[in-house]
Amino acid sequence: MDAQEMKLKEVVEFWLISAPGEKTCQQTWDVLNNVTAKQNNLSTNFKFHIPELKVGTLDVLVGLSDELGKLDAYAESVVKKMARYMGDILEEKDKWKENLSVNGTTMTSYLTKFQWDMAKFPTKQPLKNITDQITKQLTQIDADLKTRSSAYNSLKGSLQTLEKKATGSLLTRSLAEIVSKDDFILDSEYLVTLLVVVRKPSTNDWLSKYETLTDMIVPRSSRKIAEDADNSLFSVTLFRKVVDEFKLECVKNKFTVREFVYNEEELLAEKNEVSKLNTDMRKQFGPLVRWLRVNFGEAFLCWMHVKALRVFVESVLRYGLPVNFQAMLLAPPKKSQKKLREVLHQLYSHLDNSGTGGPGSDVVDIPGLNLSSADYYPYVFYKISIDVCEQQKF
Fold it and tell me: Angle CA(124)–CA(305)–CA(389) in degrees, nearest 5?
């Protein structure tokens, strides 16, 4: 890993800017790179290659400026949803970010070497068509994510419910894996076996009392079947006619009778359901991760093309025709951002036609330019945060 790669590894916020071509666009690039990177070492810079696009009418550009702003926010939300869901389902959390790639490379590498995808978005078509195409693709990815995640989450939720029932306190957990046919008197007209949960400190109390709680208890019929940290599970056999009375006496003595009827078919079905859900989840997991990996890359690609469109449209609206601007990607470390902003203002303040004195000043509203006092600069500026995992907590 070279020095530049080391520096970029720590950068999660990029600045995508454009400035009008001076004598040439190359000169615009040279001046910017010299002042910000070579002289002051404030950022690592890259040319951001935007192809020759069809300009269209002013009305179309103004309308697209607003539409692209909304699409930018939507694209970012889809990318972050994909990243978060990838983190949610991956069991090996250290491999999470490794799966967030674009065209086989990292987000940083894709962004710093950005090339317009001519195959997906031919530049001979109008800007509105390209925008609609990107919108359609993002909407489809978003809809597919909802469908696929819903199906997987439903399986996961059902499995967690059954697993929760199979663990925990003997007072509430499933007994399918605990009891067996041999623990019960079955098919008797007169006798029945009940299961009673007894708190461990009350074990001796149970053993000394259970035969006398009511009449018609089978002597020495109680047997401990299982125990957990707090309780023990005992079986006891008695005549059916005294069951209600026995339950009432258990309540008085703080013994808990589990409502349970041994049914071999139902217990087997419960075990099989857990196994089936585990199998179904394993079958879905691999294809789901592969789908997320591919479509995260597609969503990120769409998002960066939206950024490129925004730079193009805003640059034409600000700097006029013929199209003559240089788009540039800056990667400033956080500690350098304030100083970099000052240097950029000194470099491009002559472009300011809005009457502002600098960032934070009052701004004259220019239709189509999406300006506000919070984010207006003399040059076209868009922030790109590739920290798409920022809300993920493990």
Answer: 165
Joined together, the tokens standing for residue 349 give 């303040």
Distance CA 151, CA 132 (A): 29
Axis-axis angle for helices 127-165, 58-89 (nearest 10) = 20
Whether the CB-CB separation of 366 and 379 falls below 8 Å is answered with no
Total Cβ atoms within 10 A of residue 144: 12
In which band, very low, low, confident or very high, does the pLDDT at 368 lie, cut at 50, 70 and 90?
very low
CB neighbours of 286 closer than 8 A, spacing ≥ 6? Answer: none
Task: Specify the length of the chain in residues.
Answer: 394
> Residue 315 in contact with residue 325, Cβ under 8 Å?
yes
pLDDT in tens, 313-361: 999 999 999 999 999 999 999 999 999 999 999 999 998 865 444 444 4
Handedness of CA 108, 114, 119, 125 (dihedral sign): positive
Q: Which residues pair with 239 in a beta bridge?
A: 191
Q: Give the whole-angstrom CA distance, residue 25 versus residue 19.
A: 9
Q: Helix/strand/coil (H, E, C) string of 70-107?
A: HHHHHHHHHHHHHHHHHHHHCCCHHHCHHHCCECCECH
**pLDDT at residue 372 greater than cutoff 60:** no
Q: At residue 112, what is the residue type?
A: T
Nearest-10 crossing angle of helices 58-89, 264-319: 150
Contact call for residues 125 and 55 (beta carbons, < 8 A): no
Q: What's the pTM value of the predicted model, to 2 decimals?
A: 0.79
The dihedral sign for the CA sequence 347, 351, 355, 360: negative
